[in-house]
Amino acid sequence: MRKTDVVEKWLSRFVLTLAVVLMCFLCFFVWRLSMLAYRIEQSVSTMAADVKQMTTTGARLAGQVDELASRLADIEDSTSRLVYSEELTDFLASVVSLPETWSGGEARIEGQAAAEIAHLFACIGQPDLKYEYSGKHRSAAWVHLKLYNKYRLYRAGVASAEDFIEKVATKTVAGNEYYVIQEDGEKTPLGDWLLKTLREYRTSQYTGESDTAPESPAEAKTHSAAANDP
Q1: Which residues form the domain of 42?
Q2: Are 56 and 91 contained in the same domain?
Q3: Which of 170, 161, 53, 185 is nearest to 112 (CA)?
Q4: pLDDT digits over 56-97, tens only?
Q5: Domain boundary among 18, 44, 60
Q6: Do residues 158 and 109 make contact, with C-beta atoms less than 8 angstroms apart?
Q7: Is-contact 217 160, C-beta < 8 A?
Q8: Digit-coded pLDDT (tens) for 7-58
């Protein structure tokens, strides 16, 4: 056998072996791809099942939330009817008229100033009003009682309706301003709102016996001092 024939024979065997190895590698590569695709398919199926379960759970939770919201609305309606009942309004009015002996010997406010302060308390306790202070929302009944307790503490320094507004109903002890939120949603500093309410009340009390509305105690004191000044 010639040398060239031997070389060609071994070369053919090498090429055949290389082709077999390449085919094996391709088969292995295809198998790995199929396994990877199978795992991806399994993962996608699992995720789809999880998403379906989450969707079902979410729908069930949404239904429960709607039910809770409905129940909460019913509770709020019931609470509103309780808080804004006529009996509570009468109670708040009676609180303002408690005996002065509870004030610990402090000066008794009588006459025009007492009537004006009582009227301001009645306005503060109106059921269609809401209040905000120190970042919290409060009902009219809550603020009415809170300001009344504060008024009892500051009574010695309150000689007029203006004093009440300035020292009791404008800011909290911490210096945070009270706000009144009316039925139409308008938010106003309580002190400004009460001053306007006081002016309207004094105007409504004007009987026409003089050309001007009744003076406040503070204004009367100022005018009296000016008249006596030589």
Answers
A1: 1-60
A2: no
A3: 161
A4: 888 888 777 778 777 777 766 665 555 545 545 555 555 555
A5: 60
A6: yes
A7: yes
A8: 777 878 888 888 888 888 888 888 888 888 888 888 888 888 888 888 888 8
